[in-house]
Design a protein that fits this description.
Length: 159
């Protein structure tokens, strides 16, 4: 079955290459700060960078953490507060970096993944660039992102 899925994906979808993969730990809202402190104390994590949601009057006094990138040894992972924008449950999300989000999402869907949000362009610190989200057949959420702009599909001239 897996071989059939791989063959179908290779035949129908454009190739996408990936530069990196990061685990993204999603915690209940307002717990990311606590989680970051824990990972620092427990594993000697170093905070590389942090992005927070803009503070809004109607929202809580402390804005949620969009993402905090932590480094342990030679590896990095992200810690995020769960928000409506993230659209995933508390737990683990895998994040893939690619130059071609559209091709990567297409390949994943052909292989059996379900799209959980449209491909969008964002200017946020953690989700800057183009972002698409899928859930695999086993319930695991994947964020596919690039640093660039969304590609537009050019109509091909008739031969």
């Amino acid at each position: 079955m897996a071989e059939e899925i791989a063959a179908a994906a290779a035949a129908k979808s454009p190739a996408a290459s990936f530069m990196a993969m990061k685990a993204q730990v999603v915690v209940p809202v307002q717990k990311a700060e606590e989680a970051v402190a824990f990972y620092k104390a427990a594993f000697g994590a170093e905070e590389v960078k942090r992005s927070i949601y803009p503070k809004r009057k109607a929202d809580q006094e402390i804005p949620p953490v969009l993402c905090a990138e932590l480094k342990v040894g030679g590896s990095c992972f992200l810690v995020c507060d769960q928000t409506d924008d993230l659209a995933v449950a508390v737990g683990l999300v895998f994040r893939l970096k690619t130059d071609d989000v559209e091709a990567a999402i297409s390949t994943a869907v052909t292989a059996g993944a379900a799209i959980t949000s449209e491909i969008t362009e964002n200017e946020d610190g953690c989700y800057g660039g183009v972002v698409g989200k899928v859930k695999d057949p086993f319930g695991v959420s994947w964020i596919v992102a690039s640093d660039g702009e969304k590609r537009s599909v050019e109509p091909q001239a008739a031969a």
